[in-house]
Amino acid sequence: MADPIKVLLVDDHQVVRRGLRTFLEVQDDIEVVGEASDGAEGVARAEELKPDVVLMDVKMPGMDGVEALRKLRELDNPARVLIVTSFTEQRTVVPALRAGAAGYVYKDVDPDALAGAIRSVHAGHILLQPEVAGALLSQEEANSGQGRGGSLTEREREVLGLIADGRSNREIARVLVLSEKTVKTHVSNILMKLDLADRTQAALWAVRHGVTG
User: Fold this and answer.
1) pLDDT value, residue 4
2) 127, exposed or middle or buried, with CB in 10 Å at 0-12, 13-18, 19+?
């Protein structure tokens, strides 16, 4: 049996953390390894505990979720971050995705859907609701040049299409019969050539410009 997915809970409301822990602890393939009550503590705990997935609130006192995401990126922490937000905070989701979040769920999410979301982002997928994807695509259209895709090699376009399909580097390597190291190099080249910050932006660029796996 595979090792359980290690999850860190970051939320300033203890009752929310307790509820999340109570549900997640009954999942055979998920293990809650720690909690934090604000962004700064969340970053420190993520560095200490090395979780696979961080459930991160957006609005917290002190360091908020977006700032914490940026800090984790600066530290090159490999944890996948799943934003947990309320429906009324949708406008804060786009900056969080820009900062490196792998997706988001609403605080009233069905428990089984939450577990599914954790498994999905852990597998390398990106979780976006249509309305947020639309907002991100609009920004990409405004900020990115149409002609950048012409600088991609055929192999890079193949990799980009698979990123758009939500495939992890390991899955891309298997599909294209490449090493993971080679795939990582292709991903880095894609981000550099398209002047994008992360896989989320790359996936959205691919969708906008019709590049599919």
Assistant:
1) 94
2) buried
